[in-house]
Amino acid sequence: MTMERDDWQFPWAKGWPEIDRAGMVEVDRRMVETYGIALEKMMENAGRALATVAWRRWLVGRDAPRVTVLAGNGGNGGGALVAARRLAAWGACVEIVLARPATALAPVPAGQFAILKGMGIAVVEDPPEGAGLILDGLIGYSLSGAPIGRVADLITWANGSGTPILALDVPSGFDASTGRLAMPSVSANATVTLALPKRGLTDPAVRWAVGDLYLADISVPPALYATMACPIRTPSFAGEDILRIA
Ligand SMILES: NC(=O)C1=CN([C@@H]2O[C@H](COP(=O)(O)OP(=O)(O)OC[C@H]3O[C@@H](n4cnc5c(N)ncnc54)[C@H](OP(=O)(O)O)[C@@H]3O)[C@@H](O)[C@H]2O)[C@@H](O)CC1
Ligand SMILES: [K+]
């Protein structure tokens, strides 16, 4: 699978369709209710894509590389927990840091967390030093206001760690409704966004937070996009389920 395709390099030059939070919530709803593509399935695709980019860009060839996974209690955290499972199975030494107590995890992320516990994956309270990569699964498209509390502390810690950061869907702190960054915002080396680029992600002004941008296919049927209130042209993945688009 080639991760780089020249013709995908500059989406704003290519008119990549972008989507805001409301649109993505509608896509998620129709995936489940119209097509029966369960959240677990979407989350598995999201997490595997995150793990694949993590492995191929930062971890391949290294012996038991250490990965710190920062997980919020929503779908973004769930996708990162799937990536944690895949990376652990590929030989990474994974440490999970939850932003909220495990009891606050939403049902599907909680299921992912239970699997990780069953695998004996380490869950640590304080983020460890010296990891080779940090996964940002704190907040995705459901940011509400500027990050606060432990989430904000973890963002600040990750940014100051000197360790590369790979963000899921959006860098935590990025507002997918407005395309603007709240502070603090994760300053990611790369972001794996899901289905469609979230509104504003390809704006060069936010590149310092987004980093290199990958788009992951989570199997949205073209007809779903075509019958949206504002029809969307489907990105052509054509057998390559992760594309670098910026
Ligand atoms: N088809 C797809 O695209 C798929 C998308 N998927 C993924 O789901 C994501 C959307 O998931 P979501 O809606 O569960 O919420 P999400 O973004 O995880 O954030 C909620 C968390 O953020 C927190 N939080 C919010 N604001 C905050 C603040 N200011 N300061 C601090 N904390 C704040 C909030 O805390 P709380 O409000 O509960 O206290 C809660 O913990 C999406 O981005 C994608 O990654 C996958 O499921 C696969 C399919
Ligand atoms: K994130």
Automatic annotation (TrEMBL):
Which reactions are catalysed by this chain?
A: (6R)-NADHX = (6S)-NADHX; (6R)-NADPHX = (6S)-NADPHX
Annotated (6S)-NADPHX binding sites: 75-79, 169
Has UniProt tagged this entry with the keyword NADP?
yes
Q: Name one Pfam family in it.
A: YjeF_N
Name the gene.
nnr_2
Cite the HAMAP family for this sequence. Answer: NADHX_epimerase
**Which GO BP terms sit in this record?**
deadenylation-independent decapping of nuclear-transcribed mRNA; P-body assembly
Q: Which residues bind K(+)?
A: 76, 136, 172
- EC id: 5.1.99.6
- What protein name does the entry list? NAD(P)H-hydrate epimerase
Which family is this sequence assigned to? Belongs to the NnrE/AIBP family.
List GO molecular-function terms, semicolon-separated: metal ion binding; mRNA binding; NAD(P)HX epimerase activity; nucleotide binding
What the protein does comes down to: Catalyzes the epimerization of the S- and R-forms of NAD(P)HX, a damaged form of NAD(P)H that is a result of enzymatic or heat-dependent hydration. This is a prerequisite for the S-specific NAD(P)H-hydrate dehydratase to allow the repair of both epimers of NAD(P)HX.
Task: Give the matching InterPro entries.
Answer: YjeF_N_dom, YjeF_N_dom_sf
Top-level taxon: Bacteria
Species this protein is from: Roseisalinus antarcticus
Alphabetically list the UniProt keywords.
Isomerase, Metal-binding, NAD, NADP, Nucleotide-binding, Potassium
Which cofactors is this protein said to need?
A: K(+)
PANTHER family named in the record: ENHANCER OF MRNA-DECAPPING PROTEIN 3
Manner of cofactor binding, per the entry note = Binds 1 potassium ion per subunit.
